[in-house]
Amino acid sequence: MSTPLVLGLGVAAAAFVGKQAVQQYVKLRARPPSIRAFYKGGFAPTMDRREASLILGLRESAGEEKVKDAHRRIMIANHPDSGGSSFIAAKVNEAKDILLGKKKKSGSVF
Q1: What is the pTM of this model?
Q2: According to its record, how does it sit in the membrane (predicted)?
């Protein structure tokens, strides 16, 4: 007599878990691509405005304040004095200079 009850509870539990899995999958697929995946590729030999905007996570036409805010946020997380990479810090600084117009396109330092 208890076998149908146990079987019913097992089926209900499996259905609930399946429903939750489908809902989580739909949420994951609904996220913008920038949250789901990172840019796949290395640095170009010479940095241009496109690459600089990708590094800072901004549009090429971003204003000075947005560029400075993004630079500050990224440098706090990647500063060499805090255990970050000096290469990444140099690239972030170069990206800021290019987007602010302080530096013309040039070859990579590294």
Answers
A1: 0.58
A2: Single-pass membrane protein
